[in-house]
Design goal:
The chain is an alpha+beta fold. It is about 45% helix and about 20% strand.
C-alpha cells in the first residue's frame, strides 16, 4: 500500500476554502455594479414611459379641442377647457398623477392657450377658441425622481409635454363656452 503524506492531503482542502472566499469577494465586487446597471435601465425606461404618456395625453387633448366638443358631467355640460383637461387626465392613465406634489391636482399642471391665427399672440376671453385660432395644450411642472440613488444626483427628470393644432369650425355654428 502506498502511504499519503498528511500535508499533501490538506493542501487541496486549503485551496478549495481559499477559492470559495475569492468567489465571494468577486461576487460582492461585481454584483453591486450589475444591479445598479439593471435598476438604472429599468428606471430610465420608466422615465421615458412617463414622458411618452404625457406627450400622448396632450396630443389627445389637442385632437379633442380642435373639434370644439364638450363633455358633460351628471347631465350638465362642462366648459371646453374642463373637457380638454378631462381628456388629458383620462389619457394619462393615472401614471402622471403620482408625479404631483401632495397639495396639487393635475388641473394645476395642464395649460390650455389659444393663439390668434394671424398675429400668433395669446387670445383670452370670449371667442378665443373660434375656428382658425391655434390651441396649445401643455403639461408642465411634473418630475420623476430617479430610483437608483447612486445615479440620482441632485436633480429630478423634468417632464414637459406640449402639442398644438389649428381649431376647426364648430358644428354648432360658433365656439363653445370655455
Amino acid at each position: 500500500m502506498r502511504q499519503v503524506c498528511p500535508t499533501c492531503v490538506s493542501r487541496p482542502i486549503a485551496r478549495s476554502v481559499a477559492q470559495r472566499g475569492a468567489t465571494m469577494v468577486e461576487l460582492a465586487v461585481t454584483l453591486l455594479p450589475f444591479l445598479i446597471f439593471v435598476f438604472a435601465t429599468i428606471d430610465f425606461g420608466v422615465a421615458i414611459l412617463m414622458q411618452n404618456t404625457a406627450q400622448s395625453a396632450v396630443r389627445a387633448g389637442v385632437r379633442y379641442a380642435i373639434t370644439s366638443r364638450i363633455s358633460t358631467s351628471g347631465g350638465n355640460p362642462l366648459g371646453q377647457d374642463a373637457s380638454i383637461k378631462g381628456i388629458v387626465k383620462s389619457q394619462s392613465m393615472g401614471l402622471l398623477d403620482h408625479l404631483l406634489p401632495y397639495s396639487e391636482t393635475m388641473d394645476d399642471h395642464i395649460d390650455i392657450t389659444f393663439y390668434d391665427q394671424v398675429t400668433l399672440q395669446p387670445v383670452v376671453g370670449l371667442g378665443s377658441n373660434r375656428a382658425g385660432n391655434i390651441v396649445q395644450v401643455s403639461v408642465t411642472g411634473l418630475s420623476h425622481l430617479w430610483m437608483v440613488p447612486l445615479v440620482r444626483g441632485s436633480s429630478a427628470f423634468r417632464i414637459l409635454a406640449s402639442s398644438a393644432d389649428v381649431m376647426e369650425a364648430s358644428p354648432i355654428g360658433g365656439p363653445p363656452a370655455r
